[in-house]
Amino acid sequence: MRLFYILSMTFNVMMVNGRPWTSLEFAIPNSPSNLGQHCSNLGKRFCVIGVYIRPFLPNLTTKPLMPFDRTYFDTVLKSFYNRVNFFSFHEHEYGGCCDYQKDTYLHEGRFTGITVEEYALMLIDFKEGENMKKLNWIKAHFTPKVCLNIISQVGFGSGELMTAGNFSTAMGFAFPFKYKQDNLIFSMSQLHFGHLTFAWFKQQFVCPDQPWLCNDDTPQNIRQNVSYDFNTFFNPFGSQLRDY
Q: pTM, whole model, 2 decimals?
């Protein structure tokens, strides 16, 4: 994971109006990063890396993934991971499910106090709207050939913008040229002021791969099906998730 990117941030940055810093993060194919290349190999326009939440809760960091949680991943999450492009990058299950997804939750969900079902609901939350999701994570690498910082990862959620990678703040930021349909180049100040919006990202990357996340006629039906999967799994245990 990328804990070392986070350690330099202050606790105040991690909390937003009393809520933790939260980001739904994506790998961009054909970009200069290992995850980007993995996503390219899978033939996708975007890949969900996971939901990242800060700060960690120290008392949870030593707790293992419980059998109940493992069963959840092998049943419920397995039924929809490919509908949000949350693929495994582990060699033994490349493009599938669910060891990679379990590891991601263990490090980025369980350690922050988020239950496995809450984490899963965050993975299918692609809603837009003011103050709902803003750019708060970007990883980029400067490419001398084009004199630009090529974006390899983005994340949207709550909290201040965090950055990683070998980039130049004096140069513009752009997505790999194969995907730069609107020919947009963002300055660092534009990134900080929210010019790269979740709505634009969805139209350029998410909608071509997963139209149901953008088509007003279908998302609710599929979300209800996913919620039904959750409820079907949890009913025998005497609990039920809220409607999505």
A: 0.80
